[in-house]
Amino acid sequence: MNSTSKAVIKNLNDRLLAQSVIVETLIDIIIDNDLVTEEELEQMILDNHESQMKYLEELKKKETSNLPFVVKQTKVEDDEEFLERLYFGPMGEA
Q: How would DSSP label each residue in 52-74?
């Protein structure tokens, strides 16, 4: 993994940690102020998650139904296996 990839991953990890801290803090505030119970909040989160997953599935179906041709999805092997089959040397020596 090169240094650019490591920097991108570190940035994503930092963002994920920051979002997790914010969400956890907001959840604590909501529950501590008796706006909802922990069980109610958990159910709301599960319901919203299910709703978003259904919405994403609908988008996928709509996206593929609008294509003028059928795209055959193939399994892509691991990046390393794929890259091993590529040649990056000088032209004419492959």
A: HHHHHHHHHHHHHHT-SSPPPP-
Through-space distance between the first and last CA atoms of the chain, rounded to whole angstroms: 25
The rounded distance, in Å, linking the Cα atoms of 80 and 75 is 14
Once rounded to an integer, what is the mean pLDDT over residues 39-47? 94
Q: Give domain limits for the chain.
A: 3-84
Name the one residue in this structure whose structure tokens are 């997790």. 20
**Which helix H or strand E contains 93, and what residues bound it?**
none
Total-model pTM: 0.53
Q: What beta strand segments (E) does the chain contain? A: none
DSSP for residue 92: T
Q: Are 43 and 51 in contact (CB under 8 A)?
A: no
Q: Does 13 score more than 80 pLDDT?
A: yes
Using DSSP's 3-state secondary structure scheme, residue 78 falls into coil
Side-chain-side CA neighbours of 65 within 13 Å: the count stands at 6
